[in-house]
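User: Can you predict the 3D structure of Succinate dehydrogenase/fumarate reductase cytochrome b subunit? Sequence below.
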Amino acid sequence: MASTGMDSAVPAKVWSRTAAYMDWAQMLTGAILILFLWSHMILVSSGIIEPGAMNAHDVFVERTGLEPVGGPIMGVLFLFHFVHAARKVPFRLDLQTVFIKHSRMLHQGDTWLWVIQAVSAMIILIMGAAHM
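Assistant: Sure. Here are the predicted structure tokens for Succinate dehydrogenase/fumarate reductase cytochrome b subunit:
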């Protein structure tokens, strides 16, 4: 029998519920942030379509006091989501090398899509921080 290079005597790591809760938190904050980004882009672009709609939106936000409250809330959600998502990204060079090696070996498109998602998330993080 050929050796797989794995020691079968070593037990697999048992995942706790904490990891599952962190995954749910990451998913929920990601969904909230996506909905916010979509609505933000639609409301900002309403100024191109109809300046009156943009002005009405601005008056509503100023009168209800959403701006001073919503900005910090979205900033905290942004940071919370980044921290939870970053725990899955290999930041060290040796881990990145192993990841690339395994990705090439597997020839699986989903793995490369995950890399694209992680890179685009970093770009959004940098641009979002500059925008805030």
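The chain has a mean pLDDT of 84. Helices lie at 17-49, 51-64, 66-86, 93-106, 109-131.
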